[in-house]
Amino acid sequence: MNIYVGNLALSVTEAELRQEFVAFGTVTAVTMMNDTHFGSGQPRAYCYVEMPSKNEGELAVSVMNGKSLQGRIMNVIQAMPISPEAHDGRRTRTQGIRSHRFIR
């Protein structure tokens, strides 16, 4: 199960997050997000935690959501998979772009 963890303090480390989530089961990966695309490499205020067991992941989400870590209240939810209709980060018509008819 892939878990989104948001509203993190910028000083939170991968090891700290792993320690928080390992209490609920096996943690296979913690992916800290940063601004590598912009060249700054600055940490972002969110990450993804991967847990192989859905039951353990759901328990972690229910307990960790709203918990404080380094003075920040975390937002913890199940991460949604990327839509197979998305292409290169652009939305398609089936993803909500509406065509408009102009009446004269």
Automatic annotation (TrEMBL):
Listed CDD domains: RRM_SF (cd00590)
Domain RRM, residue spans: 1-81
Source domain of life: Bacteria
A GO MF label: RNA binding
InterPro entries: Nucleotide-bd_a/b_plait_sf, RBD_domain_sf, RBM, RRM_dom
Record-linked SUPFAM superfamilies: RNA-binding domain, RBD (SSF54928)
Protein name according to UniProt: RNA recognition motif
Species of the source: Dehalogenimonas alkenigignens
High-level lineage: Bacteria, Bacillati, Chloroflexota, Dehalococcoidia, Dehalococcoidales
